[in-house]
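Below is how a single chain appears once it has passed through the pipeline. First comes the sequence as given, then the structure the pipeline wrote out for it. We keep one example in the README because the format questions we get most often are answered faster by looking than by reading.
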Amino acid sequence: MKYFLVIVVMLFSACSIKNYEHTSTKIVTIKSPKIKFSDIGYVRHSKDAIELELFVAGNVFKRIHINRLICLDEGCMSKSSFNAEYLSASYPSSLLQNIILGKKIYDGQNSLKQEDGFIQRIKNSDVNIKYIVNSKEIYFKDRQNHILIKIKEVN
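Resulting structure:
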């Protein structure tokens, strides 16, 4: 019985409330076959967790928590399962968190340093990605899988 309680606590703690060190307001656009969103969002993160809170007309539309798992209003799943269901199964599991934080993807493959950021172009049989990170925005577009993620500073 006590092992059952330990397992239940561990499962529910993956989606528990976190204390985030950084919070910023952004204009977030996500277009994929399963998610269509463009409005204000909050990006909150700490060393080991990220939360993307999306609003439509001032009301919470969706919350995405990322730590070991990715948790949505519908429940939690592994990062690779999230990619397969909402983005593309060919993406590495850390892709979404790296995009939200403006970090290099695909282990920095084809990364070119820019004045205030970097650009990556990745093309293979599974993806055709253009990824730009600078001080004003994060731009990710995969033409092959019809995925667009833009995170811009609010002026």
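The CA atoms of residues 2 and 118 lie 50 Å apart.

See the next section for the split statistics.
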